[in-house]
């Protein structure tokens, strides 16, 4: 299987330039003294999450190709949906987005505001329904993680970390479908070989941790994965992303629901940053495991959280 390379990520950086925010590394003085903490706030992207990087890279490559593009299709619990809808609108393409019915309304509404057609489906059916929509419309599928262009786009985060903090010793990355960790891990391993890359996953959706321990992908029922409050981390890796994760992750740690909520509160009260639960798992991982001494970066992957949920977490 051909894996994404640092050259692919550098090409992606040129492709997405001008469309995405080059997010800063924010020093957090309240981190552990022997592991100075830095936060990479992808919540500052135009759609509030890192997914915009992969969407612009994949769709931009389509536009630059020789074949005409009549539209794009995506399936997502929220952030990839918004990213594809936003990128498609910038490029003037119709977007058809398939979302599970249990997706928070804040993410569905945001996707529609970008002009996309939203198709709701039952839990566990989004890939099947998306394939049907693609067949009906002739639009091109942009999957949320199982795509080299998407992985390379997400990897631009790692490229920025390496440029801004070359002495980094540990990078904590949320894991779900695996595109984010695959891309960031590829960049960090190429440019900061002394650093360790640590994946962080909810205990209630820890299929990747189990799979890596067994050396093969494992399947968790969607009803089990849907238990976690981190609704953006309920996917499972593909063969492509799992191969990347085996290659670039030094460790994977699982965190409890209480630890995820604590991460949301810590980012809000100490960093003054809004994080959705999925976006706070990396900080929860940093708090849970002993990484090498030296600078540590946590990826705040997104901030699209329903106000009522945020209020409940912050008051808890």
Automatic annotation (TrEMBL):
Ranges for domain Tryptophan synthase beta chain-like PALP: 18-302
Any one Pfam family match given in the protein's UniProt record, by short name: PALP
Is Lyase set as a keyword in this record? Answer: yes
**What would you give as a GO molecular function for this chain, any one?**
threonine racemase activity
What Gene Ontology terms for biological process does this UniProt record contain?
D-serine biosynthetic process
InterPro entries noted in UniProt: TrpB-like_PALP (IPR001926), TrpB-like_PALP_sf (IPR036052)
The alphabetized UniProt keywords are: Lyase, Pyridoxal phosphate
Q: Reaction(s) catalyzed by this protein?
A: L-threonine = 2-oxobutanoate + NH4(+)
Q: What class of enzyme is it?
A: lyase
Among PANTHER family, the record links this protein to: SERINE / THREONINE RACEMASE FAMILY MEMBER, SERINE RACEMASE
The free-text function statement in the UniProt record for this protein reads:
Catalyzes the anaerobic formation of alpha-ketobutyrate and ammonia from threonine in a two-step reaction. The first step involved a dehydration of threonine and a production of enamine intermediates (aminocrotonate), which tautomerizes to its imine form (iminobutyrate). Both intermediates are unstable and short-lived. The second step is the nonenzymatic hydrolysis of the enamine/imine intermediates to form 2-ketobutyrate and free ammonia. In the low water environment of the cell, the second step is accelerated by RidA.
- The protein depicted here goes by the name threonine ammonia-lyase
Annotated organism of origin = Mycolicibacterium poriferae
